[in-house]
Amino acid sequence: MCARGTRCKLNSIRRPECRCSEQCPLHYDPVCADNGLTYTNECVMHVTACKEDLILTVYRRGKCSDVNNPCERLECSHDSQCHIHSNGTASCVCPQNCPPVLTPVCGTDGVTYDNICEVRRHACLQQAHIAVRHQGQCGAGLCASFACSPPLVCDKVDGKPSCVCPECTDEFREVCASDGRTYSNECKMRKEACETGVTLFVKYNGICGGPQSKLSPPLFQGRVIGNSLAEYSSNVLLSRSYGPSKTVALP
């Protein structure tokens, strides 16, 4: 039996395994999750949690903006995230439990972690900056002994290890960078620095100028992968049900 947000699929050797689902109903039945974000419906919340190695539960039915959202008043750092407690208060917490998913990654500290969630958890608990150096175990694969200078990361290109700009997920964990722009997550900021050759660093977590400020236009343009749909409680619609492989530009 697969967990919610996952589906049973056959892998390359015809063995069944649970993978993140790519399908959710398109009906709009918003839920406010305990991370202070609104998702288009509960299915989308579970799928997003699966894809981003998160554990999410429904805090309230409806949009977070329809209730007093305590996450709006918090700025969390070092991979901690806002969590709304049952009494309506919120605090920045480190991930206590990560999904039991084995997708090994090598951290920039030289340690192999079971998944990206474990990287974030250790970074948070240690109050240290730990990022993913490459997919797979440390000391194994083509990238094991191939060093790249940040923000470049090692990846296999045409069967050979190469230093490339990082690939990023569509996760929304905004950071305000040293260029005064808001990026949807720290990886997107590093990717921008890598591609433009400009040195960037995180000034603080959250949207530049406060939670009501508008995000920079470049963050609203790009490829929507799967059905990762979330709306922030400041009524800024960050993504909608356009389906995979369509390009959207949100105002």
UniProtKB/TrEMBL annotation:
It comes from Angiostrongylus cantonensis (Rat lungworm). GO terms for biological process: cell differentiation. One of its GO terms (cellular component) is extracellular region. Residues 19-66, 93-140, 164-210 form the Kazal-like domain. Keywords: Disulfide bond, Protease inhibitor, Serine protease inhibitor. It comes from the Eukaryota. This is Kazal-like domain-containing protein. The keyword Disulfide bond applies. Transmembrane segments: none annotated.
